[in-house]
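Chain and conformation:
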Amino acid sequence: LLLLLLLLLLLLLLLLLLLLLFHTTQPTTYTRYWSPISGSATVNLGQVQEAWRPLMQTMVNLTQISSIKSTFQFRTFDPEGVIFYGDTKNGLDWFILGLKGGFPLMQISKVDMLVSVAGGPRLNDGKWHTLEVSNHGQFVILDVDGSQGLVVGLRSKQTDEDLMGELRLALGGILINTDKMIVQFRPQMDGCVREGSWLNLTIPWETEADQIWPCYENIKPGSFFPGTGFAIFNASVFPTDTDQGIQIEFWGDFSQMDGTICSIKPDGQDVMFALVANNNTKEVTLTFGPDKLIMTESFSRLMVTFQTDALTVLHDGSEAARIAISPMSSPGYWSMWREGTLAIGGLLGEDDVGSQFLSGCLEKIQIQGKDLDLDLSTKHMLMSSHSCPV
């Protein structure tokens, strides 16, 4: 009898352990919370944190649609990204309006057709433009500032079906897989939309953002860092030239910046290079290994050249310093470009976690004489990649 009781007790303990193990190994589910927002609101499309995921979206029954026209105002300096998306039949028929090279790009899927057309006026000039997208029988028309921008003709051998079901609309992202598109492009759009009238609908849209980023009244080209994020690049993607060296150049009002402008960290090592601005002292400090250079002069252009035997610093065209590199440290110095990580707007730490984030505007960033697009970074967050408030 005692043995039987012990066996029952062991079985109960085993059952409790199995239940506990099953409970703790279940995947955690996360609920996305949506907030309502007016379709006519002013929204900054640049705050989307997840590539291709819309900033805001809405859904309506097709029987409620009384207009086949959508109008809105749009402003950007960004040459590429998603503006507006719509679909029916749960994504079988869809429409995408974006920019590529600064020009409007429309891509449409309908029944057995897949169409792409680009052209019209260049829109990334930083000015507000009024855009109108409308459907006229077999044609989809994009008007820009009252003039015809793009016209797409669609004609299928299949019989048109009566539209039933629901229509989905989205801003700043899409709701289909990207491999369905004819023309691939980067999704991030540092731009603003306002005064939208979407198919004459009055229902609210939904957004996951806790609050919508502001759209500043006046903007200028550049990359704006609000002190909450940075961009990371694999340094190996930049061409290296041991004879001519590697040039990084920054433009902007350095006296108005505060925080880390740039840092470079070799793989598995401490930060080797850092450029930090201090708004209180109006100093810009460059740290390169054990060497430190403090610049107190006012300047708006800074160029750092990494060479085999020295690091040269120029501001506004005049040489500020030349830091010699010993032959012993040169191999490790070049390895930071072959295997290291470069950050713009933050100080790199372990596992590429940033700190001392930059507050201010970098009007231009160049590496090896070519403009650096922050949208190409492996990770970037909480910044405006192509515009700065004035």
Observations:
- Residues 2-24 form the longest helix (23 residues).
- Residues 43 and 193 are 5 Å apart (CA to CA).
